Amino acid sequence: MSTAGAGHNYLEHGKGLMSWLTTLDHKRIGLMYGIFIAFFFLLGGIAALLIRLELFGVGEMFTGAEYNKLMTYHGAIMVFMVIVPGIPAILGNFFLPLHIGAKDVAFPRLNLLSWYVFMAGSIMAVCTLLLGGVDTGWTFYTPYSIGTSGGVVLMVLAVFILGMSSILTGLNFIATVHKLRAPGMTMNRIPLFVWSIYSTAILQVLATPVLGITVLLLAMEKVFGIGFFDPALGGDPILFQHFFWFYSHPAVYIMILPAMGIISELITTYSRKTIFGYTAIAYSSLAIAGVSFFVWGHHMFVSGQSAIAGILFSLITMLVGVPTAIKLFNWLFTMYKGSVQLQSPMLYAIGFMFLFTIGGVTGIMLAVIGLDVHFHDTYFVVAHFHYVMVGGTLMAIAGGMLHWWPKMFGKMFSEYWARISYLFIFIGFNVTFFPQFILGSMGMPRRYHTYLPEYESLNQISTVGSWLIGTGFLVLLGVFIHSLMYGKKASENPWHSKTLEWQTTSPPFHENFEETPVVTAGPYEYR
Amino acid sequence: MIFHSLPARANTFMPPQGTEVASQFDTLYAFLLIASLISFIILIGGLFLFVMKYKRKSIDDKTAYITHNTFLEFLWSFIPFVIFMVVAVWGIVIYNNMKATSEDAVEIHVIGKKWQWDFLYKNGKTVTNTTDTSGNIVYSTMIVPEKTPIKLIMTSREQSDSVKPVIHSFFIPAFRIKQDVVPGKYSSLYFTADKKGEFQVFCTEYCGDAHSKMLAKVRVVSKEEYDQWLIKETEALMNLANLSPAELGKLVYQQNQCSGCHTINGSPLVGPSFKGLLGSDRKFADGATQKADENYIRASILNPNGQVVEGFQSGVMPVYKGVLTDEQISQVIEFIKSLN
Fold it and tell me: Which of B92, B190, B303 to mutate to test the interface with A (most CBs of A within 10 A)?
């Protein structure tokens, strides 16, 4: 099999478009995901900027119908095509096999198929959203989604297809972690990024089918008039919410767990110190994954589910807070007596901790049932999940991309401009979303395209912040493009990290390592 | 008519406190804000401290090799756990206070539709959106007496069958309460307003194009003022020869041959009597039991053979689904209620 001699890196291994479209190399597949997810992020981001522009003033730039399509566009693209697949598909694909000393994932052909399935679903979703438009919000709540016109059926089928891709990727990663670890690489020696991707993969495989079934039921109801959810046909609209959140709550952890994995890698590398509480961090990922299946009802405190169900879901939700707190304190104490270097990836990791702490404590407030009744479906919730999903996951993606960039392309980037991008994104993020906590406390509901005059000034501050975030991401994009064109050649291990991916060339060989590494110690042996 | 609204509480950014529950809410929220601030200072303060104190001096820095510390890890698992449980239980107490009701609560029906709120009073008065002389929408205002328990019985329905009713949510920020309003179901919301004034109502479940314009007001007035208003409105309705929902329900009862099987004097015929039905415990042929509430009666009208009370025959009563409108069913329920 081994056709790759030394000196042949994976970028040069085969030329031309076809060599990419038919590649079985996990690194190339990761990059192909990366290009398109970045493109979808741009689309979703433009929608976000337009939403904020509309909310700048009380006057109307878009009609209600247009605004609702825009917010669906933003939500659906960002959730299903950016943050759910984001880290596992790009960085997971690229680094999971490298991290465990493998040549590739367990099923390379399945991996390529996952990419094609993802592309099919994404193109279908983007076309539906651009051509017809969907105005249900990314949650497709019934009976609204049954009654509304537009491409709901096509959109949910696209989500079904995307879900299929997610399941296949998860399956592949679980098999890879179990079967392809290098000699000596016990489960207690795999890097924490691998633990987090592994926990995520379990969620992908177990939770996503429920989403698939739910959207199929919705499509059947809409096309054939079978009454599952529509009260006019004898169905129950609350049932849809139960089904939907049974997937979509675990999906929240599909989005954040891999981000936590990246943060563990960044903090230990840039503190030059072994991770504090490896076991606690690894098992807290599994704990979060497990508990996440039993908390979906906290999205439904005011839906009409029984009071006792609400109370139980509130108590169980609190349990998610514990492993999350454990991770934050473990990262903090990893820096204790370390050698902390404020490289741009580390800045993003610190930004993650800052924003995720705010997202976490406001999550506790929302889990308290008596408080959620007021906060539910207000801007408080919008602010909370952006602090977790953007302040958390996107900060981790940005930090992770910078950290692994030299390995992926063999080129260094401009540290100065990477820091500038961080400043814009971090400050802009807080300017955008912190005022939304206050708006939510004041009672401003979400998904409003007009609002009362008393909410105007805070909305304007928020809109200005969105321009800063946009600028930050443009600068970051510039940093990456500049590096590809003019970047200095990267050494094998520019950050002096201990994990396996840094022990091969930059960029790696076609089959990753010249010879299969033999592991004799844990992943973070900084002594 | 300009009514003075209570100002927002500028120091906390919270809406005015219109109920006892609102002040309980604000106390717990303030506690959590302070607890969060302390946690934030510990974590982020520690972060800045370590970043500055252990800043890298050279790439050959020797670092401590600390893998874990069981005691510390126990502390930062256990202390958050205890705090989380305390606030969760505290929140449950407030939640129960939100759900507390009393027998003599004033009941008002709330109908959510695209895109307005209608309020139906016992005397038959319906409050709905109107337009002023220049064509602007005047949002409906629900008038309630102060210091009196209020129960809202809410559902979502549309005027015409061609429009599909969707889920709305009734939110009064000043009272810190909200509840989804679902088609085909009744949901309830309870409050006792402490202060006179006018308070904003929002729809908080996304419901389409004019979701953000589905607004209303709650106006809390003194009991005397409320009684006078009711009397005035009743007289106005009487003059128009209109009837209350209960009275309209009686007409529905008479016109749909219900009386052939269901008496209103308490003695069962082919079916159970309507007298004393609402609120009674029903025992079914399969042994299950249920309290007869609005949803039970609605279900029994729409699908009579779904659950048959012990001692009565199944398959006797015709199905009224598609025969009676939602509005008529509500009226029958009110009629049954009036017999208690």
Answer: B92
Say whether B47 and A335 touch across the interface (CB within 8 A): yes
* 3-state class (DSSP) for residue A69: helix
Contact flag B210-A238 (C-beta cutoff 8 Å):
no
Long-range contacts of B228-236 (CB under 8 A, 24+ apart): B229/B143, B230/B121, B230/B123, B230/B125, B233/B121, B233/B123, B233/B125, B234/B123, B234/B124, B234/B125
Does residue B115 have a cis peptide bond before it, meaning omega lies within 30 degrees of 0? yes
* Residue with token string 């042929």: B285
A492, two tokens: 């094998």
> Tokens for A64?
């209600």
Q: Write down the CATH number for the domain with range A21-503.
A: 1.20.210.10
pLDDT in 10s for each residue of chain B, 340 residues: 333 344 455 456 899 999 999 999 999 999 999 999 999 999 999 999 999 999 998 888 888 898 889 999 999 999 999 999 999 999 999 999 999 888 889 999 999 999 999 999 988 888 988 877 677 888 999 999 999 999 999 999 987 777 889 999 999 999 999 999 999 999 999 999 999 999 999 999 999 999 999 999 999 999 999 999 998 888 877 765 667 888 888 878 876 778 778 888 888 888 888 888 888 888 888 888 888 888 888 888 888 888 888 888 887 787 787 778 888 888 889 889 888 8
> B50 CA to chain A: closest CA distance, Å?
6
Q: Which residue of A has its CA nearest to B40?
A: A357
Is A443–B173 a contact, with Cβ atoms under 8 angstroms apart? yes
Checking phi first, is residue B243 left (phi over 0); if not, alpha (psi -120 to 50) or beta? beta
Residues 6+ apart with CB under 8 A from A356: A328, A387, A388, A391, A392
Contact B181, B152 (CB under 8 A): no
Give chain B positions within 8 Å (CB) of A72: none
Shortest Cα distance, chain A CAs vs residue B182, angstroms: 8
ipTM summary value:
0.92
Distance CA B37, CA A128 (A): 44
Look up residue B315 and give its two tokens.
């398959």
Residues 275-304 of A with CB under 8 A from B: 276-280, 302-304
Are the C-beta atoms of residues A424 and A47 closer than 8 Å to each other?
A: no
Query: CA-based angle B160:B166:B171, to the nearest 5?
Result: 120
Q: Do B28 and A371 touch (CB under 8 A)?
A: yes
Closest CA–CA distance from residue B298 to any residue of chain A (Å): 13
